[in-house]
Amino acid sequence: MKSSQITVFTGRFGSGKTEIAVNYALDLARQGQSPLLIDLDIVTPYFRTRDRADDLASLGVEVVAPYPAGQHIHIPAINPQIRGAIEQRERPVVIDLGGDPQGSRALAQFAELMPQRDLAVCFVVNPYRPFMDSVPGIRDAIHEIETSAKVAVSHLISNPNLMSESTLELFHQGHTLVQEASQALDLPIAFAVAGARLAGQLNREEKGIQLLTIERFFLMLDTSG
Predict the structure, then answer these.
(1) Which residues form the domain of 139?
(2) What pLDDT score was predicted for residue 45?
(3) How many Å apart are CA 210 and CA 102, to the nearest integer?
(4) What distance in Å separates the CA atoms of residue 53 and residue 70, rounded to the nearest whole number?
(5) CATH number, domain at 22?
(6) In this predicted structure, what is the pLDDT of residue 72?
């Protein structure tokens, strides 16, 4: 997937979308692109990017989120800074969006501001999570998000992940299902995701898999002091 002005990551609870959004933004930062990471996940209280804003800033990623007073409540508290981040064109934007109808609705108010020719909306599929183990389940989840967010999903992200239990065999088994969904829904797979240990085992050229190698960013920070 080519770098877009705005890249949205969404997915069902447990899909890994926040870790992927953070790692994708960090990858842009390593390329010298100074990304803005917008935390629009207003529903799930776990692994919020806004809670790691200072740590991410030190790594070259600026977090844009609702006002501090609204950080720990589950309603949209959208400020002009978010609107300004979406409207500007000098820096790439990465958006972490809630993956259910309530959460994805936070994006709807900005839909008309999105540059359609330079927008990627990526639905993260972890086929080992509930309701994501079939093409119909993936289709229904995408339809819910598109209806609430008022934007169309353009790509799938393949994240066949079982944390410490992940193996090469399970990766390929899960990735095969995401490939089936890609063909059935006519949505390209932007990239697949794997932790460093598993990524080292994958033969990307032989399998033709574009891979984003991720670190467990929140776990890494929690254990570093």
Answers:
(1) 6-222
(2) 53
(3) 31
(4) 15
(5) 3.40.50.300
(6) 47
